[in-house]
Fold:
Amino acid sequence: MSDDVTAYIPSPPADGISVGPLQLHFYGLLIAIAVLAAAWLGQRRWAKLGGFSGTIVPIAFWAVVSGLIGARLYSVVTSWQIDTNGGHLVQIFEIWNGGLGIWGGIAGGVLGGWLKARRLRVPLPPLFDAVAPTLALAQAIGRWGNYFNQELFGLPSKLPWAVRITDQSELASIPAKYQTPFVSGNFLPGTFQPTFLYESIWDLATFGLLLLIERKTRLRRGYLFAAYAALYTFGRFFTEYLRIDPAHRYAGLRLNDWTSIGVFAVAVVVLLLKGRPEPGGELVGAALSAELIAVERARARRISGVTPAEPEPEVEGELR
Structure:
């Protein structure tokens, strides 16, 4: 299929590296880099609002753990045969082979982060604003894991930026009408739409748009996360539509397309009905209240081992 293609994104030379007896998969490494980048940026954004950067670390930890669990559960439930290779239960835990559903990851991450934030008495509205752009950045990085796994590609393509796929299991799993010729017991390499690249680019655009919205619009505190959901799902619909890997379909659309439509609609309605600031209300990007800054400073002193001179102040009506 790619014999007459003069330019394309080459197949990855390997899916990981060996460090002594350990085999490190690029998929997992990229997820780790994405998490670290999001946590670092989240700390900086929270500190910019006047908070204690260390507040983000425990919240991010629980968000990541619950997010990975949610992402894997979503993928296993919706792609049981693929993720377990026909029912091998041990493969449920092999996340380095792919099989992480973004919707389960977001839901699990929000739940885990919310529970930890509630325990730390951190209000959700400014926290949601602080982390919304970091999620888009993390997704932009993490999507390259699909490249190294040679998975989740789109329709056959002869575009100069098409990605070359050589993995036999991936080529065998796509619909027969898209498969490359089968010669001498193997599928020939083929070039396909690089949906991982499209989504990575869109995630970076979403990251930039969220920062622009924060600086240039009058959006109510706490609703930058809804803007993230609307922007991400808008682009995700189109990249998902191009994909040809096995998926549940309803009325001609993949399950993740319908999920994108639903989340996009809810996010837009929330923005229209609730995103406008009330008179005197707090805006996205505004500094934390004096009371909350005092709580954050007391937390910083306590963690650093410095005993505060007076009891830690409480913020009423903020923690929900």
Observations:
- Confidence is low (pLDDT under 50) at residues 316-320.
- The longest strand covers residues 16-19.
